[in-house]
Amino acid sequence: MPANLQLQIAPSTSRAQPPVRKAPDEFAALDRLGSVVSLQREAVLFHESDSAEHYFKVVTGAVRCCKFLADGRRHVSEFYLPGDFIGLDAESAYQFTAEAVTETTVVRYTRRSVEALAAQEPRFGRRLLSIACHGLSAAQQKLVLLGRKTAEERIATFLLDIADRCGETECVSLPMSRTDIGDHLGLTMETVSRGLSHLKSEGVIALESSHKIRIRDRDVLEEIADAA
Amino acid sequence: MPANLQLQIAPSTSRAQPPVRKAPDEFAALDRLGSVVSLQREAVLFHESDSAEHYFKVVTGAVRCCKFLADGRRHVSEFYLPGDFIGLDAESAYQFTAEAVTETTVVRYTRRSVEALAAQEPRFGRRLLSIACHGLSAAQQKLVLLGRKTAEERIATFLLDIADRCGETECVSLPMSRTDIGDHLGLTMETVSRGLSHLKSEGVIALESSHKIRIRDRDVLEEIADAA
DNA sequence: CGCGCGCTTGACTAACTTCAAAGATGGTGG
DNA sequence: CCACCATCTTTGAAGTTAGTCAAGCGCGCG
User: pLDDT value at position B206?
Assistant: First the structure.
C-alpha cells in the first residue's frame, strides 16, 4: 500500500541520502511531454488555492513556495532548485504561492500527462513516490528545526541542505535574499545576516560574495546543525 | 496520479473541513483484521527507525509522536486521538517514536492486511488517501505556526485544532501535559501555562480543570489563531 | 560614475526561556 | 475514606535570544 498511498511536499532534502535528483533520469520520457517556460525574477508560477492544473520541474534558477498569514507575515515552505519537481503535494488546488526567486526556467507538465506516464511506466511512478517520501521526511525535519533549533543551528542546517541538494561540498550558491532565507527559517533578515557573519568570523564558512558561500569546516558546520 | 502518489504524516487536522474521522466508517472491514492492544501511560508503541511492521488506530486515550535532537531537545510532531490512524507516513522504518500519553488502547494492523484491503476495496483506499492529504496539509500549517506565529497564536490554534478533531465546539479535553503541548508548539511548559492563563483572564476560555478547557468565545479564539 | 536596493552592523526592545518557589491535582496505601 | 506524597501546574523574577529600529556600506545596474 505504501506503493499507492504516498504524497509529498517538497524535493528531497534529507541530508543523509544521496540527492534523488542525481539518480539516472527517469524524467527523460516525461520531458518530451512538457513545455519550457521562462520566468522573470519575482514572476508568479501559481497562487495558493488556484486549481492545480500543472506540475513543474525547475531547470535553471530557483522557485520559492510561500504561505501568508492574514496580517502579511510570510512563511517560505520550500525552495526548489534545478531538478526539483513542484506540485506533487497539490490535491485539486495548490497549497502555496510559487514565485521565481531569480530568472528561472521551468518545464511545465499537465497533470494528465504525468499521471498517464506514472500509470504506464512503473519505474517513473516509483521515482515520484521516492521524491514524495523524501519530501515528507524533509518536512518533518523542518518541524524540528522551526520548533527547537536556535538561529545559528537553523542557518547551519540550511546551508548544508542547500549544499547537498546542489551536489556541492564546498561552494554554495544562494540565489535567494536574506529575507527569503529568514522567512524559510522562521527568523528575520537581520538574524540570518548576523548568523552568517558569525559563522564567517569563526572560520566555518567564507562569504565569497553575499550570494556565494564556501564551507570551510564541514565537520563543525554539521555539529552546529545537528545540535551535538 | 494523485490517486497513487499519496503519503501522509498525521491525522486530519485542518480546521476548515469536517473531521475525516467522523465520516462513515470504512475501517469496519479492517477492524476484524486488527488486534487490540492496551498501553499504560508512557508505554512505547514503536521507536524511531524501528522497522515499520504495523499500522495503528487509536481507540481510546492518546498517542504522541516525537523526534529528538542529539542533546535531548524534543519535538512532538503530532498527537493522535481516538479514530486517528498512525503509521501511514512510514516507508520501511518509522520516522518517530510513538508513546501513549495516557492509558490508551489501539488496534494494531499488519501492513500486509491494510495494503491488501486497500487494493481490494477502492473506497478504503481512497479513505486512506484522504487522511493522508489532510495530514499533509496539516503539516504545512504547522510549519507556518512554528515559523511565524506568536506563543498565544500557537496556543489558540492548538486548542481549536484539538476541539475540532474531537468534534467538540465547547469543552475540550487535553490528555497531554503542558510540557507535551510545549514540545508540540515549540514553546516551554511555562509559556504554555501563561498563555492559557492569559486567555482565561481575557474570558476567551475557562479552565474547568487543568486538562479540561471550555471555549467561551470561539470568534475571538479564531481571530487570535488566524492572526487577523 | 552615481543611484538604488539589499546586506551588514549597532543599539535598544520585546518575547520567550530559565530558574525558582508555591499551589493544585490525583493516585495510593494505610 | 482520607491523608499524604509525588507530580504537574501556575506564577514570579531575572536572564537570553532574537526582533525592531536605524544608520552606513557595497555591489550591481543603468
Answer: 96
